[in-house]
Design brief:
mainly alpha, SP0561-like, 9 helices, 72% helix, binds fe (ii) ion
Length: 226
């Protein structure tokens, strides 16, 4: 157990992506803040480290993502995978979720003001991610591929830093939505759209966490190793 406590969150998630659900449950960041040990992250968040370690040891939920050995993939292949799987998922779901969020805010906003806040937050995620993905697909990922083909290629660290900052910003917004929605738990009186909104938001959050994890913790460090 002590061994696990001293591992960084990024290391654990890199070894087994299904542990992401445990960190999500405790709202421990494994994207931007993934470089901290579990023990330190728990101390900072005022969470019992024993609970987290227990959940990690008992973690049997392997449903969030297939166990693929992302770490062994080439940077080029991984970049393509991210675009085909995660960017596609986002593009297919942004408008559906925005539609649900706007409808719920319109119908329930007066007696449940947080639904308005959630809709506004999701709208900012939507525009932020749309330009973010273009930056990755047209600037950053081609540069990563060029660097793989030619080690002398001059890689622009500024774009990389900017993209990482954007991950952090989006991470903060999605965490706020998670808090406002009480971990995506609809109230008892919720209508089907309300339920669907929270279901989709949870699915979107899981996908986004995995997506940013693949970029920050696996793809980008590969560039440094080239
Ligand atoms: Fe991405
Ligand atoms: Fe990204």
């Amino acid at each position: 157990m002590s061994e696990l406590k001293n591992k960084t969150i990024a290391e654990i998630v890199s070894d087994d992506i299904s542990t992401a659900s445990v960190f999500k449950k405790y709202k421990l960041d494994f994207c931007g803040g993934g470089g901290t040990t579990i023990e330190n992250a728990c101390k900072k968040a005022n969470i019992n480290v024993g609970d987290v370690v227990n959940d990690l040891l008992n973690n049997t939920s392997k449903q969030e993502a297939p166990n693929l050995n992302f770490k062994d993939w080439s940077a080029e292949f991984l970049a393509d995978y991210i675009v085909y799987v995660h960017h596609t998922y986002i593009r297919q779901n942004l408008s559906i979720i925005s539609e649900f969020a706007d409808k719920v805010a319109k119908v329930h906003g007066q007696h449940e003001p947080k639904t308005i806040e959630i809709a506004q937050l999701f709208s900012s995620i939507s525009s932020e991610l749309t330009s973010h993905m273009i930056k990755e697909e047209f600037i950053l990922f081609p540069a990563i591929k060029a660097k793989t083909d030619n080690p002398h290629f001059e890689f622009d660290e500024k774009t990389l830093a900017l993209v990482k900052d954007e991950h952090e910003e989006v991470g903060i917004i999605i965490k706020k939505i998670q808090e406002l929605s009480a971990d995506f738990t609809p109230p008892e009186w919720a209508c089907n759209t309300f339920k669907a909104l929270y279901f989709k938001l949870e699915e979107f959050t899981n996908d986004l966490y995995q997506h940013i994890h693949l970029e920050n913790n696996i793809l980008f460090p590969k560039v440094k190793n080239l």
